[in-house]
Task: inverse folding
């Protein structure tokens, strides 16, 4: 969290994350180019200008696949949450690698004095009227444009200006971009290179990403089914000790947003499960230093009123809680953000 | 994530997976046999 906006709020975790990323990308690209040349048949050595296109392109594909897999992986296994922490840097890195791939393609034509051919290929209408043989460059260019918009608006400043729902909506075309990349490879490289590895890698990687999203979505559906409130709008949560200390139990009314019911010792409080930062699942976080801490980026809120501790000004909607016949109940109607509503239960 | 966002995800991914499966399968099934691939050089194509 920060009271103002900085380009990057560096800390040890981010530095380690970024160094690991840079090392991984360097190893992949260097390894790809060295291996491709080492394995080439004698007299058929691929040129560096071809290899760098392939190395950067395939690297960007794997990076984007991994970025898309991080979200569902973290939802399926909370131990993988640290991967999510600095995913935006991962995305920016992937955009740069994809942009380099695009630059090398243009440079390939420039080196041969064939830039008019490049322009002609992407501007000839007939190249778009067929499936096999369609010009694949615009597929990659549109995907790159989507990644550019995402990269350009990735900073918290834009998240704040655009508001989390709009920002999320602006970033949703990443799925279309992923589809475009896969077709860019299937209708491009796969049409010239008959190695079975290409369709296998393409299918396995994208299939795994899709499967992870579908599985995590199905897992979420159970919680979203919700618990029917009683006539007065109260939802049964369970005995106080059914909520682990410093953790939350997440409930929802049918059709309503999720509510995180936290326990900190004897104090019970309920807040919206949507973090004010990126709508992260605060209920999957824990209470650290007396504050509810979002597992995504560490934004913090007080249990008693859902407000961030000074000097921060973020607030979460809170919910009334009560102890009835030994069970905690939460009211389905949210209170205005920052309204004190917690309860201390007798030991 | 909001409920609507989760619903959208649950709808998008099966559709995207099905569309890509069809697209890649068609690209694989309809590609010309190797002996008919003599084409002008294109970027990204290893000239072997």
Result:
């Amino acid at each position: 969290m920060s009271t103002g906006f900085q380009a990057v709020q560096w800390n040890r975790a981010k530095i380690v994350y970024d160094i690991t990323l840079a090392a991984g990308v360097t190893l992949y690209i260097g390894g790809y180019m060295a291996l491709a040349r080492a394995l080439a048949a004698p007299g058929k050595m691929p040129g560096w200008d071809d290899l760098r296109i392939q190395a950067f392109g395939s690297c960007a594909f794997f990076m984007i696949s991994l970025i898309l897999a991080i979200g569902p992986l973290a939802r399926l296994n909370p131990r993988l949450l640290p991967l999510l922490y600095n995913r935006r840097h991962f995305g920016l890195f992937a955009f740069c690698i994809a942009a380099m791939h695009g630059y090398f393609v243009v440079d390939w034509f420039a080196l041969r004095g064939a830039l008019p051919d490049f322009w002609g290929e992407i501007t000839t209408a007939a190249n778009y009227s067929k499936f096999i043989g369609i010009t694949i460059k615009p597929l990659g260019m549109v995907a790159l444009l989507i990644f550019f918009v995402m990269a350009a608006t990735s900073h918290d400043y834009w998240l704040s200006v655009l508001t989390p729902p709009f920002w999320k909506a602006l970033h949703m075309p990443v799925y279309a971009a992923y589809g475009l990349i896969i077709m860019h490879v299937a209708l491009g490289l796969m049409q010239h290179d008959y190695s079975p590895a290409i369709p296998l890698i393409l299918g396995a990687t994208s299939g795994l990403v899709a499967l992870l999203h579908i599985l995590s979505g199905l897992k979420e559906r159970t919680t979203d089914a919700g618990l029917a409130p009683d006539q007065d709008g109260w939802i049964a949560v369970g005995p106080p000790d059914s909520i682990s200390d410093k953790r939350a139990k997440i409930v929802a009314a049918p059709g309503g947003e999720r509510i995180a019911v936290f326990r900190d010792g004897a104090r019970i409080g309920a807040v919206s499960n949507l973090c004010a930062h990126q709508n992260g699942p605060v209920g999957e976080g824990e209470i650290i230093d007396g504050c509810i801490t979002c597992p995504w980026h560490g934004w913090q809120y007080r249990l008693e009123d859902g407000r961030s501790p000074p000097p921060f000004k973020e607030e979460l909607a809170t919910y009334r809680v009560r102890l009835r016949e030994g069970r905690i109940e939460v009211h389905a109607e949210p209170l205005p953000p920052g309204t004190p509503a917690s309860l201390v239960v007798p030991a | 994530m909001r409920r609507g966002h989760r619903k959208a995800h649950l709808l998008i991914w099966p559709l995207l997976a099905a569309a890509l499966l069809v697209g890649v399968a068609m690209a694989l099934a309809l590609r010309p046999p190797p002996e008919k691939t003599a084409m002008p050089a294109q970027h990204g194509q290893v000239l072997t």
